[in-house]
Predict the 3D structure of the following.
Amino acid sequence: MKGMVTSMKKYSNIIQWIVAVFFLLAIPFSGLHASSLLLFAAALLIAPIKPLRELLSKVKIKNGIAVLLAVILFFTGIVISPESNISSAPTESTTVSDTTVLDISTQPTSTYAPSGEVVTDLPGTGELPAELTTLFETHSRLGTEAAPVSSPDIPAYSGSAFVKINNNTPFFSKDELKTTGYESYSPLDRLGRCGVALACVGRDTMPGENEERKSIGSIIPSGWVQAQYENVPGKYLYNRCHLIGWQLSAENANRKNLITGTKYLNTKGMLPFENMVADYIKETGNHVAYRITPVFEGENLLASGVQMEAYSVEDGGEGICFNVYCYNVQPDIKINYQTGKSSGTAAVITTARDETLTTERNNEKIVYRAPTGKRYHLISTCAGKNSYSVTLSQAKAAGLTPCQKCAQ
């Protein structure tokens, strides 16, 4: 019996030495710092060193208690070690393509809060957490700088409603990535054309559960010369196309957010991407940086197409990431982009300017203006071949005065 006890003590001492050595080896692996003292003390407590055991016995600390204290000191040293904090930021990055992209250098200068109030700057809230900032700086899904180009640099329409830009890589700056929603719309230019619409869309920008869509028929975007054709779904050639869709922004008759777009652009080009973003937000509750850039050639009143960029913020583009150009065309219909007029081989039901569609404009009086003129006209031919229709209130708001020939 006495020999068995001696043997057990011997094996116990061996095990304690092994554990003590393990504790000591943990010091260089965890890094040299103040907590290393705890690891060293744990090794001393658990090691069967005779002088130390005698000292502990004098202060009435039994071997079992010493082992327990050693274990506690060891794990405390590991937990408070700086080396135990593991960064969640990715370290991999790949080279971003330098493929030429659309000119999106013009930035919006006014922002609409959900209430409709105009503010001058993007919201300061919703800044990216530190880990997402690191993700932005290293993630290969974001481009670095947009090179100025014009519409002719985009491939000609060849049967597809859209084409990828910059290998589908969007361009957003760090300041444009937010974890709270905002919307920003450019002012109309001197021709009444829309500019860039920038937003970070999420559940906080989308319409409420019981919110109903309101009429947008009072808005007359540039290039709006409506026509009907048998071979166009729904007959009408043009739609009032939201840059940032209603389902993402709850924006109704915001003239800075509506352009003249073909049925094809609206339903085959833009809508599938818009639906993709809306579905993602509903499923995840995350935010998506979203920018729509209408592209006009020269002083054309009708956009040749729109560039759509999107990037999901909270997951670093894993859920949503695209950069495409959607063509403002209608198959089998010839369009004059300078004016918005159209023609086609299919039977035309009606082709007229909005003066024949007064119900869409709330019966407000329609007048005509030239792109660079200072007067409004009651007769389109008096305004010139490049004239387009506007409401009387819009003409007056633009500072136009009545033509002395036809509007007196």
Confidence is low (pLDDT under 50) at residues 83-125, 131-140, 350-363. The first strand starts at residue 110 and ends at 112.
